[in-house]
């Protein structure tokens, strides 16, 4: 008997609304640990314990701006992906938000889930009234290629910006996306 193909569309995407359940916090912690263990540069050094990851999620969600958006993608095993939107705190930038922690579990990679999460968070940002999004990522990483492919514009590279999970320094590429600019329009 043939197994059905697993795709990004077999994952349900939803917004997490605080307070977040203990089981969701544990799933998010497992996702973060898996991401760090796979070598992805997402602000943490290895080894990352499940308890430390869960504590980070608990603090991040509880301390977030009221306009922050946390999306998760679920599969039959639990949370398989996530991405966050954080409005800027500066009064002169009410139109801008930062995208953070696009994470996809190894079991769900190479299926289009990261693209689907990014499209969903961009749509949520538009609905929330944001017109400019920013993010940073490791230069040369798969995420850099993803952001370029889905229409993000590189603004520059910062050498030695952060460390990989093993402590090796890496450069970061800063990206932005103007949400209300029609595709293919000329830049100023």
Strand content: 25-35%
Give the structural class: alpha+beta
Distance between the termini: 56 Å
What characteristic shape results from the CA principal axes?
globular
Name given to the CATH architecture: 3-Layer(aba) Sandwich
User: Total number of β-strand segments?
Assistant: 7
CATH class descriptor: Alpha Beta
Would you tell me which CATH topology applies?
Aminopeptidase
For the CA atoms, what is the radius of gyration? 17 Å
| Low-pLDDT windows of residues | 1-6
Q: Which superfamily, in CATH terms, is the homologous superfamily? A: Gcn5-related N-acetyltransferase (GNAT)
Total domain units:
1
- Average per-residue pLDDT, rounded, comes to 92
Sheet of most strands: 7 strands, mixed
What is the helical fraction, as a range of percent?
25-40%
Quaternary assembly: single chain
**H and E order:** EHHEEEHEHEE
Specify the number of helices: 4
How are the strands of the biggest sheet laid out side by side?
1-2-3-4-5-7-6
Describe the structure.
The chain has helices spanning 22-37, 50-62, 113-127, 142-149; strands at residues 12-16, 69-75, 78-87, 96-104, 132-138, 153-163, 169-178. The protein has 188 residues and is of the alpha+beta class. It has one domain (11-178): 3-Layer(aba) Sandwich (Aminopeptidase). It has a seven-stranded mixed sheet. The radius of gyration is 17 Å and the shape is globular. Residues 1-6 have low confidence and may be disordered.
């Amino acid at each position: 008997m043939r197994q059905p193909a697993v795709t990004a569309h077999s994952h349900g995407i939803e917004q997490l609304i605080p307070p977040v359940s203990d089981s969701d916090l544990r799933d998010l912690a497992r996702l973060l640990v898996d991401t760090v263990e796979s070598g992805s540069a997402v602000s943490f050094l290895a080894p990352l314990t499940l308890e430390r990851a869960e504590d980070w999620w608990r603090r991040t969600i509880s301390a977030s701006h009221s306009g922050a958006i946390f999306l998760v993608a679920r599969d039959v095993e639990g949370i398989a992906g996530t991405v966050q939107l954080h409005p800027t705190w500066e009064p002169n930038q009410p139109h801008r938000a930062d995208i953070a922690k696009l994470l996809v579990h190894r079991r769900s990679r190479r299926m289009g889930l990261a693209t689907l999460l990014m499209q969903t968070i961009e749509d949520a940002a538009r609905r929330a009234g944001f017109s400019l999004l920013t993010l940073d990522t490791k230069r040369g990483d798969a995420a850099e290629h993803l952001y370029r492919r889905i229409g993000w514009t590189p603004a520059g590279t910062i050498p030695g910006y952060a460390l990989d999970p093993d402590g090796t320094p890496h450069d970061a590429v800063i990206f932005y996306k103007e949400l209300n600019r029609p595709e293919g329009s000329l830049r100023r």
